[in-house]
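Schema walkthrough. Field components (list of strings):
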Amino acid sequence: LAKTTQPISMDSYEGQEVNITCSHNNIATNDYITWYQQFPSQGPRFIIQGYKTKVTNEVASLFIPADRKSSTLSLPRVSLSDTAVYYCLEGTNAGKSTFGDGTTLTVKP
Amino acid sequence: DADVTQTPRNRITKTGKRIMLECSQTKGHDRMYWYRQDPGLGLRLIYYSFDVKDINKGEISDGYSVSRQAQAKFSLSLESAIPNQTALYFCATSDWGQAPNNEQFFGPGTRLTVL
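Field assembly_structure (string):
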């Protein structure tokens, strides 16, 4: 199962933009990049998914450069409630993707 | 009502006991998954099923078995529980062919403690 590499933790302050990077140097041609958010003692929740270039939805943006060896999740103007663990996954529609240890984001007042 | 439910939500058992964790979903998804999560770590895939007749081992299937009784039900069994199986267990579902690609929907989790 393909596994990605992310920073273990990040700190930010309310109102700032947060960018979390993910490395996936051996990403396969058919793999998508998907990000999930997890609060303590809850199941992960889907945030955003992309294949290449930039994807934006109501909560985040995802940028994947042309070589697709990395990706960046961007959270605009974070609040205290964005404190959570963020997981970057690579995988296909076959469902063979895996969660690494994620990035713990702490938003401070 | 929740789309993905898990029972029990909490369970304390003793070493050597057989335990079954159950997962039900009302989303109509074909694919279902079982994960475990240890404190401070990410989720690890135990088993997954792409339809009622399809069962696949994940990263850490040793010591576990599963049963896909129907499209909506996927059970995880620990035949003889041991303390290092103490963890938070999540069930998830996904739908093939729908965008976003293989988005997984998670249940609330079952906290299992093996003494």
